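Priority: low. Protein: histidine kinase. Input follows.
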Amino acid sequence: MDRELKHFYDLSIFTVDDLDVLLHEILKHTRELVSCEAGTIYMKEKNHLAFHVFQNDALSYENIFKQYCNIKDLELPLNDSKKYLAVESMLLNKIIIIDDVYKTKEYELLGVKEFDEVFDYKTYSIITVPLIHPRQKTKLGVIQLLNKKTNGCIDTFTKKDKDIVSMISSFISLSIAKAQNDVEKLTRLNRQLEEANKKLESRVQKEVQENEKMSAIIFHQSKMASMGEMIGNIAHQWRQPLSSISTIASGMSIDLEMNNFKKEQAISNLSQIVDTTKYLSQTIDDFRSFYKVDRAKEHFNLAEAINKSVSLSTATMSSSYIKFILNLDESLTAYGLRNEFTQSLLNLLTNAKDALVENVKVDEKRYIFINLYKNSQNKSVIEIKDNAKGIPDSIIDKIFLQHFTTKSQSGGTGIGLFMVKEIITKHMDATINVTNEEFTFNNKEYKGACFTITF
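Result:
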C-alpha cells in the first residue's frame, strides 16, 4: 500500500504539464491502489461534466478504442443527477459507493447500464469520488472506479477503499489544478504569440510594401541618372557625324556658288550624308531599346550585351582617353532581363570611367578590361577591371549600400552600384563582388578595382 501511495505523494507528478497524460497516470495509479478493473475521469466544464479518460482491463483494445470514440465528446449535464452517478457525486460533494448496480434502488444508473449493453460488459460495484481543490474549494471533476477485485474476483468497495480515495483526492485535485493552470497559461501564451505573429506579419507586409515602393523609386532614379549619362554619350557620338554632314553640305553649297557642281561628286556626297544619318538613327534606336522595360526574362548572349554597353559608352570613354581591352567568350549565355543587365554593365563602366578620370592623369594610360569566361565550376564569369588604383579599404565594403556615394560634392546619389547589385542578384540570379587587384599589362604594373559577376 505504501509503495502505491508514493505515486501520489511524489512531487514529480507536478511536473506533468500535459493534462491528458496526467489524468491517465492518476487513473492508472488509483485503480492499482484500490484494485479495480476499470475507471473513468470526468472534468467539469461550464455546466456539464466532460469525459477525459477511460480505462478497462476487461475490454479488448478494439473495444476500448470504440468506447473512447463513442464517449470522447460525452457531456453529462449537471442538472441530470438521476441518470448519472458522477453528476450526483459532484453536486452533493460526497463519495458514493454502489455495491451492485443492478440491485440498488437508490439510483437508476441508466448511463452505466447503457454502457454495459453496448459493450457486453457487466458493472457490479462503483465508487465515485468528487475532485475538489482543498484550498480554493473549486469543483474540478469526478473520478469513477468500477468493479473492485479481491483475489481476482469481483468484490465490493470497502470503507478502507473510501478512506484511501478520500485521502488522495486532495492531492489529485492539486495536481490537476496545476496542470489546468499550465494549460491555461500555455493557451494564453499561444494566443498572445498568435496576436504578436499577426502584428509582426502585418508589420513585415507593410515593410515589404514600403521597400518595394522605395525600390521602384530608387530604380526610377537610377534609370534617370543613367539616362542623363546616356544623353551625354549620344551627344559625344553625334558630334563627329553632325560635323561631317555640316562639312559635306557646306562644300556642296560652295560648289554651287562657284558653278563647280559635279553630279558624280554630289551623288557621292549625298550618299555619305545618308549613311551618316542612318548611323545617327541607329544611335537613337540603341538608346530607345536600352531604356525599353523588359517584361519577361529571356536567354541572351552575354558577349552581345557587353559589346552593346561598350558601344553605348565608347564616345564618352574616348573623350576621356580611356581604352577598352576586351577578352570575351562569345558562346556564353545568361537568363534574365537583358536591358536591365545592359544598364548594370553601363553603370559599372561609368563608375570605372569616373575613377580613372579622378585618379589617373590624362598623359597616363587609362584602361578598362572586360573578361568573359567560364570558371572551373562551369559558371559564367564577367570581370570588369580598371587601373584607377583601387577602392580605399575603408569604403570597399560599403559601395553596394543604398545611398552610399563618394561623389556627394559633385551630385552623386549613391544609387548606381546599389541598383547594379539589385538587378544582378534579383533579376539575373547571379552574384557580384568587388576586390582590389594588382596586375601586369604590357609589361607595366597596375592596380585597380575588379567587379566580378558570377552566374
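The longest helix spans residues 159-257. The longest strand covers residues 139-150.
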